[in-house]
Amino acid sequence: MTYVHNIRLITCSTHARRTWRGSVYKLIYCDLLVWLMIYASLSIMRRYFLGDNEILIFDKLCLYCNKFSDLIPLPFVLGFYVSLIVNRWWIMWDTLPWPDDIAMFVTAILKGQDERARLMRRTIMRYVNLAGVHTMALFSGSVRRRFPTLDHLVAAGLLEEGEKQIFEEMSGRITKLYWMPLVWATAIVTKARREKLIDADISMKTMIDHLCDFRRKCEKSLHIEVINVPLVYTQVVTIAVYAYFLANLFGRQFTGERDQVDAYLPVFTVFQFLVYMGWMKVAETLINPYGDDDDDFELNWLIDRHLQVYYTDNNDFINFVTV
């Protein structure tokens, strides 16, 4: 579930450092604790359990790891990877279908205040929202839990019993039927033109074009969710980050040959861990924004918002026009 903190960040500059939900601290604290425990175990072993010859070998290993660990181009690898993931994350949000444009065109083009015209407007918007919800249920677990069956769509008022039977008959031949309600909507638009509720053919074409654009949004949302970031790229980044900090378990130990100050905690290495590991965890969080993490898209909120558009835009707002 998305944790909304933008307003609190604006009103309090320290909130970004103190927030736990959706923060980098929550993402990396387990890895950091494990790393510190292993680091402390190696440090204690060197100080209290190794002989002089063994300490000499251990220190040489530490010097070797410290010298060559920086050969891993971690900023370069992480920078490209996170940039790819963030761009994909924004595209996934930008391709989600929104019914607002269709609602405005239905209100403007399909005229009439009688019951027939009102029913047509409401039915078109119901079909548009049905197509959007059905699409989101195909790729989002949270939406699928809310609408696991067609009966739940009927209970929500998005689907009627007769339409449900058509869905069930067609589902045996076609798996993804998100486009079918939009076909029904275009049929209503065509019928409205024949009944002179739409003035001109160009208006009907404009309405159908917007329905087609909505269908393309639904299709693109499905495609971009199916086409994942190459697993090889993710593995390269993960191996690079963990290999770097595995080497630093030895390379950042305080040894008598190299360090004049004998410290127990590698403070700046912890800062490095916070930055690099947090950088990678950000990408892991954003790679699938349709889940239930703190910063994932709140699609159920989006559905509720679209249903409000369905219930208000095409019936209520038109009555407020005074000129």
Overview of the molecule:
The chain is an all-alpha fold. It has 2 domains: 39-54 and 72-93 and 230-286; 95-226 and 302-320, no CATH class. Helices cover 70% and strands 0% of the residues. The protein has 15 helices and no strands. The chain has helices spanning 6-11, 15-18, 24-48, 52-68, 74-94, 100-109, 115-139, 141-146, 150-155, 161-171, 180-194, 201-226, 231-251, 267-286, 299-312. Helix 3 (24-48) packs antiparallel against helix 14, helix 7 (115-139) packs parallel to helix 12 and helix 11 runs antiparallel to helix 12 (201-226). The longest helix has 26 residues, at 201-226. It is elongated and about 95 Å long. The model has no long low-confidence stretch (mean pLDDT 86).
- Shape descriptor reads elongated
| SS element count, helices | 15
**Number of DSSP E strands:** 0
Low-confidence stretches: none
SS-derived structural category = mainly alpha
Radius of gyration based on Cα positions? 29 Å
Number of domains: 2
Strand content: under 5%
Helicity range of the residues?
over 70%
Please provide the ordered H/E string of secondary-structure elements.
HHHHHHHHHHHHHHH
Q: How can the largest sheet be summarized?
A: none
N→C terminal distance: 44 Å
If you average the pLDDT, what whole number results? 86
